[in-house]
Write a structure and sequence with these properties.
Blueprint lengths: L2 H14 L1 H25 L17 E2 L4 E3 L5 H7 L5 E3 L2 H8 L10 E9 L6 E7 L2 E9 L6 E9 L6 E8 L1
Helix pairs in contact: 1-2
């Protein structure tokens, strides 16, 4: 008998044992959890209609007008954004979502807006006006495609008719 055959028989016996069954179950659960996490953010991805031109600076919302929520408030934000892509909120609520650094200029109103990012700790957000709606774009630097939910507080001087969220990956 050759060595590869003996190795495969040995591996089969190990995986067939009670401990092997736990290993197989752990691998399956880890695979399922990874798939669910990857899908979690994907459900918020919505592509705006028409041509995609996030580089058009005339339509960009200045970075000083949007703030990412703190991670500890994600569950609350998901609840608020369960059925809609953007919802108006009070300045007090905006501050509770983002932290004490939040500011809103006179004549603008804070909106909580769905956002999706690709790879944590890389890339950045851009918010663009899109035919009366709002388009949140995240550019991620990663070879691995994952999608995670977050939300932004965006100060606007108009009421968005729709909200869209997409992710671009750069390698």
């Amino acid at each position: 008998m050759n060595d590869k055959y003996l190795q495969s028989v040995s591996m089969y016996r190990r995986l067939s044992s009670p401990l092997g069954c736990l290993v197989r179950t752990g691998i399956l659960l880890a695979t399922m959890s990874t798939a669910l996490l990857a899908e979690g953010g994907a459900v918020w991805i919505t592509r705006p209609p028409g041509p995609l031109r996030p580089q058009d600076k005339r339509l960009a919302i200045p970075e000083t007008e949007f703030f990412e929520i703190v991670a500890s408030r994600l569950v609350n934000a998901e609840s608020d954004l369960q059925k809609v892509g953007a919802v108006p909120i009070s300045e007090a609520k905006a501050r509770s979502y983002t932290g004490e650094y939040y500011r809103c200029a006179n004549g603008k109103r804070p909106y909580l807006v769905r956002a999706v990012y690709g790879s944590a700790g890389t890339g950045s957000f851009m918010v663009v006006k899109n035919d009366g709606g709002l388009w949140v774009v995240h550019g991620s630097v990663s070879a691995v495609v994952t999608y995670s939910k977050t939300a932004l507080v965006v100060n606007l001087d108009f009421e968005p008719t729709a909200a869209f969220a997409t992710v671009f990956f750069y390698q």
